[in-house]
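Study the following:
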Amino acid sequence: LCLTETEMIKELLTKHNPVTGKSWLQQQGTKGFIGRGLLMANGEAWHHQRHMAAPAFTRDRLKGYAKHMVECTKMMAERLRKEVGEEVEIGEEMRRLTADIISRTEFGSSCDKGKELFSLLTVLQRLCAQATRHLCFPGSRFLPSKYNREIKSLKTEVERLLMEIIDSRKDSVEIGRSSSYGDDLLGLLLNQMDSNKNNLNVQMIMDECKTFFFTGHETTSLLLTWTLML
């Protein structure tokens, strides 16, 4: 199927998305990167995961994130003032800015680990993209190739970092330092898991965090870069 008319493409993506969905190749290509998060879900799984994450993106929640956006933007502006007269790679600056903002809005006080997570996910995305070229060969994803070994190692490190953040939230609640897991995306998902809502488990939470962290950063940084260039 090849569509070139914008209206037909719009209709396909909006009205018939549950039918078309993500292909096996797309899902396998990103499995080591963002797992089975919302971006790669189909049908009922997509509706379920969208409903699960929606509370983190209500109007009031987004207004609450504004302080993080302003703070990170001020820090970037101050850094750029020191480089007046020098050439600046604006794409890289926007990637750093959006990574900082999403680290704060998704992980709150654990934003430093969020930045480390972003660096690992950047490398992991590149490796998964390279490994995808070999998926057409049956069984290639099971072979101990260089790409597969590196992907497995980085994925383990990413999930180790996420588990450290999750365990820290759980410990704070258990010892009474905090009454909830927080009001950021991670906190909302942990609260849902704790109340046995949406059949959540830790792996699903990690996959959603990776999905929103990287896809949200990628699209926003590109938009900001093109806006400034134009």
Notes: The two ends are 34 Å apart (CA to CA). Residues 148 and 168 are 30 Å apart (CA to CA). The mean pLDDT is 81.
